[in-house]
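Morning run. Coffee first, then this:
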Amino acid sequence: MQKHCTKPVCHRKACRRVVQQYVVMSEFLGYARVSTAEQTAALQQDALRAAGCSRIWSDTASGTRTDRPELAAVFDQLREGDTLVVWRLDRLGRSLPHLIETIGELEARGVGFKSVQENIDTTTPGGRLVFHVFGALASFERELIQERTLAGLAAARERGRLGGRPTALSPAKLKQARKMIGEKTPVTEVAQVLGVSRATLYRRVPELGEARRPVSSSSATGAEPTFSEQA
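And here it is:
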């Protein structure tokens, strides 16, 4: 069996072929973002080059936007062993939970992350610890928001207030609608006076469809149907 050369540096062609086959160079890829066209990404790009980035992608978009084409492009170029570098954390994530999610996606792909301003590098134990703390803080924040929401709903229910969309017919309007319908006012006119749709009246006033029926002569004349009591 042929043995591989163990020399640190060897110029034999066979050894060079083995080195070229198994050694893969990792890259630092940079991402910059500015919010408006009036701003310039030159400061960020200079800092990214100084950090060792071989290629840089730049977006002009608000941090709240999800459609950032250059960010998608740099993600397509990232390979296992590469490192994504940003000038500052807020250049990448829309919020702390989104930032944690993005870094988690990179980590699952075997890609590192580095932020120049905050001096965070997830390829080091200290950098990974920082993001684990960030993840715990994001989870704690979500739990606090959920707890405050549930407490607020409970307090509102105790005061007789229910959540959801306000009803179109208040008790006073519902009373007025029943009175007008009892006076045989056309449904369309009742709806216009109360500022609601006919469908709302039929839904909130069941007697329109149950205890009343259209006068048969109205269909022949084409007039607005009125309602009379069933025998």
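The two ends are 107 Å apart (CA to CA). Good start to the day.
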